[in-house]
Write a structure and sequence with these properties.
heterodimer, A: 115 residues, mainly beta, seven-stranded mixed sheet, 11 strands, B: 109 residues, six-stranded mixed sheet, five-stranded antiparallel sheet, globular
């Protein structure tokens, strides 16, 4: 398996522009998580899905952020409009089915810079 | 949100030295996990500890879960440059994991 695939790896955009980050989880994983990592705040959970349904979006910072999972093999995180404080590395992770412990496999991340 | 505090924040040592990093919380966890993250990559799971007082060894790495299941430690023996990275502890209720901010370790030859 190729693991969790994220794109783009790097994105530089200007304030006010729309940003879409993409994630392909590992086949057969039934949970998908979006995290944001900054030096100041570390890894923060934004939202997670179970079987394509959003379960908890309490970590989404504000209405400018939205996430979708139209099918088991694809998810997007959208920021509209983007602001400089959104600059961070955004990680997608998926969970292996039927394990007792909550084992997450992370993608390599999407580094977002908003100018 | 169950907060996880990690210490030290940064650690710079020479090859061959031993070190211990800590993960503490006021909350009780059913399990705790340790991940290592290298620059430009996502975190990778090292170990999961489940039972209070449990000790797990992974080559030169020794992980311990506190008796009260509120804290954990990671001890590295004879550190090598390949151990350089960000070490993160994680825990949570249900399916959502909360992470500490991590200990950034640099091992120089």
């Amino acid at each position: 398996d190729a693991g969790v695939i994220q794109s783009p790896r790097h994105e530089v955009t200007e304030m006010g522009q729309e940003v879409t980050l993409r994630c392909k989880p590992i086949s057969g994983h039934d949970y998908l998580f979006w995290y944001r990592q900054t030096m100041m705040r570390g890894l923060e959970l934004l939202i997670y899905f179970n079987n394509n349904v959003p379960i908890d979006d309490s970590g989404m910072p504000e209405d400018r952020f939205s996430a979708k999972m139209p099918n088991a093999s694809f998810s997007t995180l959208k920021i509209q409009p983007s602001e400089p404080r959104d600059s961070a590395v955004y990680f997608c992770a998926s969970r292996q089915r039927d394990l007792g412990a909550n084992v997450l496999t992370f993608g390599a991340g999407s580094r977002l810079t908003v100018l | 949100t169950q907060l996880l505090e990690q210490s030290p924040q940064f650690l710079s040592i020479q090859e061959g030295e031993n070190l211990t990093v800590y993960c503490n919380s006021s909350s009780v966890f059913s399990s705790l996990q340790w991940y290592r993250q290298e620059p430009g990559e996502g975190p990778v799971l090292l170990v999961t500890v489940v039972t209070g007082g449990e000790v797990k060894k992974l080559k030169r790495l020794t992980f311990q879960f506190g008796d009260a299941r509120k804290d954990s430690s990671l001890h590295i023996t004879a550190a090598q440059p390949g151990d350089t990275g960000l070490y993160l502890c994680a825990g949570g209720s249900g399916y959502a994991l909360n992470f500490g901010k991590g200990t950034s370790l640099l091992v120089t030859p």
